[in-house]
């Protein structure tokens, strides 16, 4: 998808990654970038960079943090949620 020129941003969804389900992309907060993406932080140094976390829904299509999403869904994808 990226090789084909598709780019994703915060809040975008895609049905091309996980068969039968949409996935969602969420921006990582700046404080997590340096603590969780250490190698990227070393590479970029003082320059700012961004990263997205792909999150997947439960079997009913509920995304983490949504009104009907079960607690376990956020627990299993908790990097930035």
TrEMBL record:
State the source organism's domain of life. Bacteria
Return the protein name: Uncharacterized protein
Q: Which organism is it from?
A: Streptomyces alboflavus
């Amino acid at each position: 998808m990226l090789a084909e020129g598709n780019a994703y941003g915060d809040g975008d969804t895609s049905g091309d990654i996980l068969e039968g389900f949409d996935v969602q992309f969420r921006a990582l907060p700046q404080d997590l970038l340096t603590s969780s993406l250490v190698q990227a932080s070393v590479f970029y140094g003082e320059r700012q960079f961004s990263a997205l976390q792909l999150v997947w829904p439960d079997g009913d299509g509920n995304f983490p943090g949504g009104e009907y999403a079960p607690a376990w869904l956020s627990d299993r994808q908790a990097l930035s949620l």
